[in-house]
Each structure stands twice: as structure tokens, then as C-alpha cells.
Design brief:
There is one protein chain. By secondary structure, this protein is mostly helical. Helix content is 89%, strand content 0%. It has one domain. The protein is built from two helices and no strands.
């Protein structure tokens, strides 16, 4: 059982019959010990309260640290998701661009093919025209020569 400062203040010693200590000196010493003991007890209580307060603050800091850790993990996860999403979106855009380029190339090839067919058709039409016109001119020339011959005779 611990002593309380009041126990020291109230402690009484029996009177020695022969050669004891002087009562005023013992009382003064007990008074001094009681005061020091009381101060130490108060300091001990204050230190325990400080330790308790520090423990609470430490727990608060631990919770704050855990919250920050969770926030960092969430931020990292969000950043990873954003990067993955951007990568997927970029790949999709690239794929769409390639498909669009292939479509444009195919349309250009088709246009070239149609233009070549039109060019061939126009050349054939020109050749047919030249042949027909040449034939017509020869016919007219022959008729003209025949008419001129007939007039001269």
C-alpha cells in the first residue's frame, strides 16, 4: 500500500523513554518529506495526464496517418485507372484513325478506278468518233470526188 502525503503528515511515533529523537526535528523532517512527497505525487499525476494526452494525440496522429495512407492509395489507384483509361482511349482513337485511313484509302482507290474506267471509256468514245467521223469524211470526200468527176464529164 502506498503512502499518501496525509499519512506522512499524520504519522506519530511513540515517545522513546531513553535517548530518542527530538520531536520538533522529527516533525519538521516529516513535514518536509510530506511536502516533497505531495509535490512528487502531483507531478506524477500531471505526468500521467500528459502521457494520457500524448497517447490520445498519438492515436489521433495514427488515425490521420492511416487516412493519409488510404488517400494516397486511393490517389495512386485513381491515377492508375486514369492512365489505363487514357491508354485504352488512345488505343481506341488510334484504331479508329487507322480504320478511317483505310476507309479513305479504299475510297481513293475506288475513285482512281472509276476515273481510269472513265478515261478508258472516253478514249474509246474518241476513237469511235474519229473512226466514224473519218468514215463520214471519206464518204463525203468520195461523194465530192464523184460529183466533181461527174461535173467534169
Amino acid at each position: 500500500m502506498r503512502l499518501a502525503p496525509l499519512d506522512i503528515y499524520n504519522k506519530e511515533f511513540p515517545q522513546a523513554v531513553i535517548a530518542g529523537y527530538r520531536k520538533p526535528d522529527v516533525d519538521a523532517f516529516l513535514e518536509e518529506v510530506a511536502r516533497d512527497y505531495e509535490a512528487l505525487t502531483r507531478e506524477n499525476i500531471e505526468l500521467r495526464q500528459q502521457v494520457e494526452e500524448m497517447g490520445k494525440r498519438l492515436a489521433d496522429y495514427a488515425r490521420l496517418e492511416e487516412s493519409i495512407r488510404k488517400a494516397l492509395v486511393m490517389a495512386q489507384s485513381t491515377a492508375d485507372e486514369a492512365r489505363a483509361s487514357a491508354r485504352r482511349e488512345g488505343e481506341l482513337m488510334l484504331q479508329e484513325a487507322r480504320q478511317e485511313a483505310a476507309r479513305i484509302q479504299e475510297a481513293a482507290r475506288e475513285q482512281v478506278r472509276r476515273e481510269e474506267e472513265e478515261s478508258i471509256r472516253l478514249r474509246q468514245q474518241r476513237e469511235r468518233f474519229i473512226l466514224e467521223f473519218g468514215g463520214l469524211l471519206r464518204t463525203y470526200l468520195a461523194a465530192l470526188e464523184h460529183a466533181t468527176k461527174a461535173d467534169s464529164e
